[in-house]
Design brief:
- By secondary structure, the chain is mainly beta.
- It contains 3 helices and 15 strands.
- The strands form 2 sheets. The chain has a 13-stranded antiparallel beta sheet with strand order 6-5-4-3-2-1-15-14-11-10-9-8-7, with helices on one face. A two-stranded antiparallel sheet has the order 12-13.
- The radius of gyration is 19 Å and the shape is globular.
- The chain starts with 14 loop residues before the first helix and ends with a helix.
Length: about 280
Amino acid sequence: MNREPSRARPFRDTARFTLLLALAGLVSSPALAQDPSPEEIGLAIAHEAAARNDGFGNFTANLTMILRNRQGQESRRQIRFKVLEVEGDGDKSLFVFDQPRDVQGTALLTHGHLTAQDDQWLYLPALKRVKRISSSTRTGSFMGSEFSYEDMSNPEVEKYSYRFLREEPCGELTCTVNEQVPVDTKSSYSRQLVWQDKEHLRTWMVHYYDRKNSHLKTLVFAGYRQYLDRYWRAGEMTMENHLTGKSTVLNWTDLEFGTDLGDGDFSQAALRRVR
């Protein structure tokens, strides 16, 4: 399923946007006529990273979630994932737990939005009940992992303010470091630092700071693969909680784009039918 990009990006295809990216070293530049601010550069980088991901349509994947406690003991969960790109709004996604037996059939449905807070529902098969995730619950742990419900939402550009900080080596690559601050005052984070490589704008690391501005968690991405000659997806995501000493690893496999998915697969009624 191939579609045209679904979201309007304010800086795309404009001379101003080109100047901002050129100053950040992301595109070759004509003579620069002005000096964009760090905020303008940071916003331009965020828009370009999002634009490069536009038009994927939908995809499915399988996940292995590995939970590790402070002592290194592990437990594992098997999950199915589906996502649908939505024109003019945030994406819709669905996580369905298959194993172990005590969480089998549990499902998280998210309807993302560009500016408003995302809608999220959790289906609990033991209770045969769909529970709406409230604003206060979004900051809590997702199924005992170090990811919160907030972390499972799609990070739309419009939900943050941005500031470009610097460039620095990240492994064999050169990364931009961008600070992003949630617009939502109910977010559990005061800010995030994001490392993206300059060539493909793939995210390699995110530092999450709590409301007291303490470094709470670190998310590291690895094992990137390119799909459809355009879309980069990480094969592994590791979230470490520096407060608890616990970590959660998500291993992604069997990614398939252009599947037969529609709005009906992401409804509250569909939550009760997941198998």
